[in-house]
Amino acid sequence: MNRIKYIWILIMIYIFCSARTCNESEEATEVQKEQYTMNLMNSVKNVFTSDSLSDYFLGAYEMTAIEKLNDFAEYLRIISDTALDLRFRKHAAELVKELFVSDEIELSGWSKSYPEPGINILNDLISYSLSNGVSSWNQPMQINLIKPFTIINDSTFTGDLSFNYKSLSLSGQDTSEIASGRLVVDIYLMKKTKTFGKDRFSVWDVYLGDMNVDHEE
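^ that's the sequence the OP posted. Answer follows.
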């Protein structure tokens, strides 16, 4: 849902920046309208496939990273809730994996609130939550960009977010908060080849990485 919303935000940005006047739009022929729509979609596609990105669009991708951190927390809440249908929880588990740059990233900062110690790898955290369930979930708070996306090579940017979180009961009855300290999560903007219908494009997308305690707080 958030990815679709983000695409439409980019479309609206392009429309705002390049739209004609109302009079010009009213006078356009059907052929011109069709061509305009095609040009619009090509321009949006270019944002995702471009070899270079402006600071404006890097900022938009940084906001996407914040959304994906919140998605991660929400999906883990679903995965951990044994009152929900197992198929629904397994689907959420697959969605979680798509948020991260690798299944083997380390979540030692995040998992310290879990009842079982030493669950530091994403795959292990997901497996434990599916098998045993967890009575609480972690909600990120005060998310800040502490390192903007910086280019590493022609297909990778990296950055960092920092945030606090509170641990809440799944039942909603216990509103107590467990002090957590502050965490840092690596974020990545990477260009990868993806399939869209019959076509394949190299497109930019945002991923989360390792999540550890912020030792500079």
